[in-house]
Amino acid sequence: MKLTRQKHAKKNMGFYRHNFHFREPFQVLLDGTFCQAALRNKIQIREQLPGYLGGSTQLCTTRCVLKELESLGKALYGAKLIAQRFQVRNCSHHKDSMSGSACLLSMIEEGNPHHFFIATQDQDLANKVKKKAGVPLLFIIQNTMVLDKPSPKSLAFVQKLQMNELVPEHQKQSIVQLKEKEGLAKQEGAKRRKRKRAGGPNPLSCLKKKKKKTQEGQEPSAEKKKRRKRIRNRVKAEAVQSVQKNEAE
């Protein structure tokens, strides 16, 4: 059973690594319900989770989650002690704190750019997380931690990516930043001047000159040749006639 669970986790992690570029150390955001379930089931999150996910992890929470645990009193005192051991990620609710579930949802907005995992036992929060692509979900069941399979939203997102119909938000931002760094964004906005190419010779000037024809449509050289032939024929005829007269005499 443990091997099967490990195989499923490895397969799901491969999906998020390949399609959403998750890298070590994996950042896991935990809420109070997950910490309480780990305490009840005697699960050592810090020791067991890296082996299950197949890489180093950073366990995190937020100020809103800690304030929520403090407000719940002694019932969740043990969960509060566990959560206080984790790193605190900055949220935008410094003055007006909100519920832990709402705070965690705000941390994965805009395509989950920081590649957070969400660890919770709150079913309502889990359903909202599944509606966002590229957010792995962790929960505890039967005294073990489980990485949920990719949601239909994540599968549909990857299918669109493979069809080249969608670009991830974090990739769009990185492309814009690279263009600004190289100064390409301004060049694209400005109109490019067309350079005039060096023109070749006029094709009409390359044509061979036509020889002038006479009014009769004959070339002058041909007419001269005919005149010469006529003169030669007359000379021959006169010579023959003179020879015949001499013989007759």
SSE layout and pairings?
Blueprint: H1 2-20, E1 26-30, H2 32-40, H3 45-53, E2 57-62, H4 63-71, H5 77-84, E3 87-89, H6 100-107, E4 116-119, H7 123-130, E5 137-141, E6 144-147, H8 152-162, H9 169-182, H10 184-189, H11 220-248
Parallel strand pairs: 1-2, 1-4, 2-3, 4-5
Antiparallel strand pairs: 5-6
Helix pairs in contact: 2-5, 4-5, 4-6
Task: Note down, in words, how this protein is organized.
The chain is 52% helix and 11% strand. It has helices spanning 2-20, 32-40, 45-53, 63-71, 77-84, 100-107, 123-130, 152-162, 169-182, 184-189, 220-248, and strands at 26-30, 57-62, 87-89, 116-119, 137-141, 144-147. The mean pLDDT is 82. The N and C termini lie far apart (147 Å). The protein has a six-stranded mixed β-sheet with strand order 3-2-1-4-5-6, with helices on both faces. It is α/β, with parallel strands linked by helices and 249 residues long. It is built from eleven helices and six strands. It is rod-shaped, with a radius of gyration of 46 Å.
